[in-house]
Amino acid sequence: MLSGRQDEQQVVNTPxxxxxxxxxxxxxxxxxxxxxxxxxxxxxxxxxxxxxxSQSELGDEVGVSRQTINSIERGRYLPSLPLALALARFFGTxxxxxxxxxx
Length: 103
Description:
Helix content: 55-70%
Number of helices: 7
Shape: elongated
Order of helices and strands: HHEHHHHHE
Distance between the termini: 74 Å
Largest sheet: 2 strands, antiparallel
CATH topology of the domain at 40-100: 434 Repressor (Amino-terminal Domain)
Radius of gyration: 24 Å
Strand content: under 5%
Number of strands: 2
């Protein structure tokens, strides 16, 4: 007969159940979806340079880091709707003038 302590060890050593599907499939699927559906050109760099601002100065104006502005300009990051609106308002233009999926 097992003591209470041995029973606890058996429960602790039980392996977790296997996931319903391999994690790598979910990763590949989300990566493929995000790279195909959400590509968008933007005019942030041109607008920023036209205003004579550095990435850091623009980031300070709209409340994000220089790195975020850099990633947006390079197309590696799609801003949230509030950030897209803040950028458009800062430049005195519409979101459609700043971000265009058909450029």
